[in-house]
Write a structure and sequence with these properties.
Its EC number is 4.2.1.46. It catalyses: dTDP-alpha-D-glucose = dTDP-4-dehydro-6-deoxy-alpha-D-glucose + H2O. The chain is of the alpha/beta class and 346 residues long. Helix content is 42%, strand content 17%.
Amino acid sequence: MIKNSQKKLLITGGAGFIGSNFIHFIYNKYPNYIIYNLDLLTYAGNIRNMDNLKDIKGSKRYFFIKGDICDAKLVGGLFKKHKFDIVVNFAAESHVDRSISNDYHFFRTNFTGVHNLIALVRKYAIPRFIQISTDEIYGDVHKGASGESHPMHPSNPYAASKAAADLVVQSYMRTHKLPLLIVRGSNNYGPYQYPEKLIPLTITNLLEDKKIPIHGDGQQLRRWLHVEDFCRAIDLIMNKGKDFSIYNVAGSETSNLNIVIMVAKVLKKDPKKFIFFINDRPGGDRRYAPDATKIKKELGWSPQYHIKNHLVNVVGWYLNNEQWWQDIKKKQAFKAYYKKQLRSEY
């Protein structure tokens, strides 16, 4: 357990969607935390996500370092210099479609980068390390729910790279007796999410009167979790989680198609005019169903936001921040991705 005194916290991948929201959450909650944000600023961990942190830029409690978690010399130097109390790793390549097209960077960052981090955690005796994982490592769950001891059965290169990371973290727990933790979150949504993901893509395409591509029949089931609920869960695990533990964190279940219909309803659009179906991706899973009973019983966590009730606020954020997502979507890299992966002109 982390005591209530000044702490140095390293967030890797802190310019990404969840990482930047977590930094903001921790900064506002804990005046005794000094936060270091290490990010390579790839397409998803982009400089526009730093808008989420602009109000703390220049603070004596927040520092940004551009760098790669695979760079052992850089990361080792940071560990040696700052003597971190806590490291939370959000750094990851995270889009399934991109992993199917080219998985090299997924295994480099999601596996090799994680191995580099925990080897340095061991070398410099960092007291607390949390690996942010995903429910996708469990694979397709046709019935019931997947608890933390459920076998890993990843269906695509992204999920496989995250499962490999979980395994190397667990191996360090057992072999080197390091009190590491793993957090497996379900599908997140909220402000500053890169617009290739389903919810921001749906919102922004509808605002631009563009078609919405849906994989397969759209009946894939996911447990949708607001990013603030996820941040609260990680905070609880960081401060009260049991050493050597894995925690699932999940929201409420609904289908991808229903998400699109709900967003269209908020924007008063007819979804039938905008939806078009494309072939399901190779290795596509029908249902993810992580069981979050453990964190609820041990740490008293429960989600505060239900997607059916809170989606209107998320839509409102994208309405009020058009410049943020328009700057991303107008870039040639995004247009090329959209055309290649979603078989559609942007």
